[in-house]
Amino acid sequence: MYEPFAAEFEAHARDSAYNAHYDRPAVLDLLGDVTGARVLDAGCGPGLYAEELLARGAVVTAFDASPEMVKLAGRRLGGQADVRVWDLERPLTWLPDATQDVVLMALVIHHIEDRSAALSEVHRVLRSGGHLVVSTTHPTSDWLLAGGGYFDRAPVEETWQTSWRVRYWRQPLEAWCREFAEAGFLIERLVEPQPASTMAARHPEVHDKLAHAPGFIAFRLLKP
């Protein structure tokens, strides 16, 4: 999906309000201390999260369905991580059971059609006591943007940044939580992020909006 505009997205995400000053700070805070941890960045995009994970001492494996995104991530990470082309819609056949300490799925799960299968595979490759940190669009934000009923479960097709055609799923909070539970995860933390202080100077209008209403939601999930 992101292949046609991968380079544009990379340039945008480096300092965008929602990526650089909202989701990344919240997600990295949920990950906590990753020194020496084996971290799988699932749907890594251009490697902006993986870059920070490496800087914090993690042993990073990353993949994305977009070959161009993987090329950008590989360039950014400079050979310090195993980065490959793979789609979360497919089983992670190249990863053995219980080999990862942490899995990160940053703003990717809502693009997946078969989320149950993807979550089951993530559960399989995590060790017992390992964590999945996942972020997605906030159900209330989706509802207010797309209209209809809050409890609607449906795909949404939109154009971002004037020409980026995207497709993602909207559903209520209860549905997200049920999917996590059915895959075998326990919710340790649920975070409705506040904008980072750095957003106020860079993107004041978005800062004011997100200080009053959530745009994203993030979870720290435990594999017992």
From TrEMBL:
InterPro entries: Methyltransf_11 (IPR013216), SAM-dependent_MTases_sf (IPR029063)
Domain Methyltransferase type intervals: 40-134
GO biological process: methylation
Record keywords: Methyltransferase, Transferase
Keyword Ligase: no
Top-rank taxon, per record: Bacteria
Statement: the UniProt record of this protein carries the keyword Lipid metabolism: no
Any one GO molecular-function label of the UniProt entry: methyltransferase activity
A UniProt-annotated Pfam family: Methyltransf_11
This protein's name: Methyltransferase
Organism placement in taxonomy: Bacteria, Bacillati, Actinomycetota, Actinomycetes, Micromonosporales
